[in-house]
TrEMBL record:
Ranges for region Disordered: 1-43, 120-165
Protein name from the UniProt record: Uncharacterized protein
Species of origin: Acidisoma cellulosilyticum
Basic and acidic residues composition-biased segments: 7-24, 31-43, 154-165
Species classification: Bacteria, Pseudomonadati, Pseudomonadota, Alphaproteobacteria, Acetobacterales
Length: 165
């Protein structure tokens, strides 16, 4: 009676491994809800994390990367964020043309304050252009708007200036 090669290959029962209690594995719930979410437990305190553009339609954005480096943004290595990339991956954490970068939180706060100051100054400049200064700075006359309506008369039409074409 010939022994089949298959029986020689399997000396152990395949279910034997299942009977042994392996280390308890857990799964990350909601893993696919937001691919750009960075879990708080992986972040270092006093560091700011943001996704920054690395490529657009497959083309690397080198000029943008130089600007980011000048503002102290550094790419986060996959080894610093376990679970964000495959276990054996050597490189930076990236998703869909974006790379995860970090820098000290105080630099990000300074940048936000600078943006706010610039925005407020632009609004103030525009208000001045439109004559929306404070009440005590310039004379104003409140427009008188009537809520009543009536048909247009000939005298109303006569007071309207027609602009020639």
């Amino acid at each position: 009676m010939a022994v089949s090669p298959r029986s020689e290959m399997r000396q152990d029962d395949a279910r034997e491994n299942l009977r042994e209690e392996p280390a308890r594995l857990t799964r990350r719930r909601g893993l696919h809800t937001d691919k750009y979410h960075v879990p708080d437990d992986l972040k270092q305190p006093d560091m700011s994390y943001e996704w920054k553009t690395a490529t657009v339609t497959g083309m690397e954005q080198m000029e943008h990367q130089v600007e980011l480096a000048a503002n102290h943004w550094k790419p986060v290595l996959a080894s610093e964020m376990p679970g964000m990339m495959p276990a054996d991956y050597k490189g930076h954490v990236n998703r869909g043309g974006q790379v995860l970068m970090c820098r000290p939180e105080y630099l990000t706060q300074e940048a936000h304050e600078e943006i706010l100051d610039t925005s407020l100054q632009r609004v103030k400049n525009q208000e001045q252009r439109l004559g929306m200064s404070n009440r005590d700075e310039a004379p104003r006359t409140a427009p008188k708007v009537s809520r009543a309506y009536s048909p247009v008369t000939r005298s109303d039409k006569a007071s309207v200036r027609v602009i020639p074409e």
